[in-house]
Amino acid sequence: ALLTLALCTASSNSVLYHDYCIIGAGPSGLQVAYFLQQAGRDYVVFERSHAPGSFFALYPRHRKLISINKQYTGKSNSEFNLRHDWNSLLSHDRRLLFRHYSRDFFPDADTMVHYLEDFASLLKLRIQYNTAIIHVTLEKDEQAWNGHYFILTDQDRQNYKCSSLLIATGTWVPNVVNFPGSEYVEGYETVSTNPEDFAGQTVLILGRGNSAFETAENILGVTNFIHMVSRSRVRLSWATHYVGDLRAINNGLLDTYQLKSLDGLLEGDLEDLAIIKDKKGKLHITLRFYLENSNTSAGIDSITLPQDELDNFATRAPYDRVIRCLGWKFDFSIYNRSLKMMPEKGNKKKYPQIKPNYESRGTRGLFVLGTASHSVDFRKSAGGFIHGFRYTTRAVHRLLENRHHGVPWPSTVYPITQLTNSIIKRVNEASGLYQMFGVLADIILLRENATAFEYLEEYPIGVLAELETQTGRKAPNGLFVVIMEYGRNFSGADKDVFYYNRAVGEAQHAWQSNFLHPVIYYYKHLPTEHEMRLRSPDWPLPRPHAIHHIVEDFLTDWTAPNAHILPLRRFLENCLSTDLRHFFAESCFLFAFTRQKLPPSCQHGYMNMQGLVGSEVLRRHAVEAGLLEDHALTDFSDDRPPDNQEESQDQLLRHHMIPVLPLQHLVNTKDE
């Protein structure tokens, strides 16, 4: 309260207003600024440093990113290629693809800094540098978008007023564990990166993540040995399918541990530890309860060490250095209590509490973006990393456009005959579905009588029950949800993901697919909030009326006619009680006399007199494909061009014509 009073009374400057205030010019801050600028909105980005991406100017300490930068995929489709580009932000400028900045598979962090600087300058984003926001509070006002304004104060006591606040600061406060002797511990943020400084030393590393293994990798060849201790077992990203777990590029210590080359891993609660420094400067590891029962003022000789009772205690050898590599947490300190910014619970406590639409649980109009929003999909998907949050940031922008400006979620309407093709195209190309598996989904809203559908891309499924209010689109006639998933029991720290017969190849066993594959949920009505709350913890969505798995594919290419497309089409037909096959005009002509209801392709094509006038080339192709009988037809090659339209029609009547073929099926060989 005193801080709030001091800030308010110290400021004699006028309050500057913007519709949207963004705190942080890191990747997520730049990404949302781009979308707001493209939409012509009033916004400003506050950055405490002199340049964007200041986090990457320091981290990772050893300067090698673990986000892949794949130069070649064998395909030219830009959307598909983003599946394997984990560093680029989304924009219309093709110059701002990361592959133009580095050819390294794991790029240097300095390259990322340069890239973010170019992204901000080339797109002319409105960023206010050297502006540290030190306090945020609320000002109630019924005329405001959300019933209140956000008041931000910078280091110069300048106040800013905003209708919507977007937090893109990431997690940058180091996690610190306090225990007796923790003052002897060096932090990852300050420890030397010169391997020669560790030559001939014995090192203990606290932590078990990528920063810990990155540090160990740097000094592996010069130390006596390295021990690593953490409360949890090592989690390998290839087993958990979570990119934030230990990556292979950093796991050299696992080799030296398992191949008995002195290094080792231990499990234990860090808060139970204690460190004692002897007269020679060596650091001894003991347990807190030994220290509590000893007279510490008498020196180390009077303190009982674990090896005094258990002579083969694992960490009985003293260490020269202890390094803390425990990651980072969100900075809650600048937010007034009125914003109700509370940490999540359990292993997500380093993140603020937010809803599945990335809005704060305590304050309407406050959205958390980027790494700090990772509580929505922690240890499940890629929302804490650039290749994930570039899509969730776009989703938040679309939600804001609908809420504050009446711009509905972008969608495209297609005839029902294009349903199979639309799904197949998206699951083979879409990068947002691929990267944010289990979190973002394509929504297909059916029109009345299933004659057409409306396609919405990459919607957060956590707020599926609120789709109509969040998007401005209606779903009265049922919907399909297209999502990407791994197998239910395939991922985990203790899973053997290389076991024999791990892959499924036959369509009838698609539901047992282990690797990432498309899953289509069908609902006759939009799921309710109650149904969403009652869904199984392992399921991204509540129980559907029908579900279809497209069988996993070794090439992640779901275009096989029999294994992928045909089972999908039959699933859709069963859900819609219609025939989604495409027919030639001959078949439509026959159906018109023999059926009460024509298939949609005949209704939209043949019955609307749509198709292609035949020619000798098409006739020969149809005959060779076995689609038409080989009737003797008059050669068109000697015909002179008709003088007028009437003569043209008479000429067509004189010749034996092949039936009209729908344009999209000239290359088909038969009715499926």
Explain this structure.
- This protein has 672 residues and is an alpha/beta fold.
- The chain folds into 3 domains: 16-173 and 329-400, FAD/NAD(P)-binding domain; 182-326, FAD/NAD(P)-binding domain, CATH 3.50.50.60; 411-576, no CATH class.
- Helix content is 25%, strand content 17%.
- It contains 20 helices and 22 strands.
- The strands form 5 sheets. Strands 1, 2, 3, 4, 5, 6 and 16 form a 7-stranded mixed β-sheet that branches. Strands 17-19-18-20-21-22 form a 6-stranded antiparallel β-sheet.
- Strand 12 and strand 13 form a beta hairpin.
- The longest helix has 20 residues, at 386-405.
- The protein is globular, with a radius of gyration of 31 Å.
- The termini are far apart.
- The model is unreliable at 1-12, 633-639 and 648-672 (pLDDT under 50).
Instruction: Report the top-level CATH class of the largest domain.
Output: Alpha Beta
N-end to C-end Cα span = 72 Å
What value does the average pLDDT take? Answer: 89
- The domain count comes to 3
Q: What characteristic shape results from the CA principal axes?
A: globular
CATH architecture of the largest domain: 3-Layer(bba) Sandwich
| CATH homology-level superfamily of the largest domain | FAD/NAD(P)-binding domain
Which fold name corresponds to the CATH topology of the largest domain?
A: FAD/NAD(P)-binding domain
| Count of helical stretches | 20
How much helical structure, as a percent, in the residues? 25-40%
Radius of gyration: 31 Å
Largest sheet entry: 7 strands, mixed
Q: Care to count the β-strands?
A: 22
Poorly predicted regions are: 1-12, 633-639, 648-672
Family: Belongs to the FOXRED2 family.
Function: Probable flavoprotein which may function in endoplasmic reticulum associated degradation (ERAD). May bind non-native proteins in the endoplasmic reticulum and target them to the ubiquitination machinery for subsequent degradation.
Pfam families: Pyr_redox_3
Keywords: Endoplasmic reticulum, FAD, Flavoprotein, Glycoprotein, Oxidoreductase, Signal
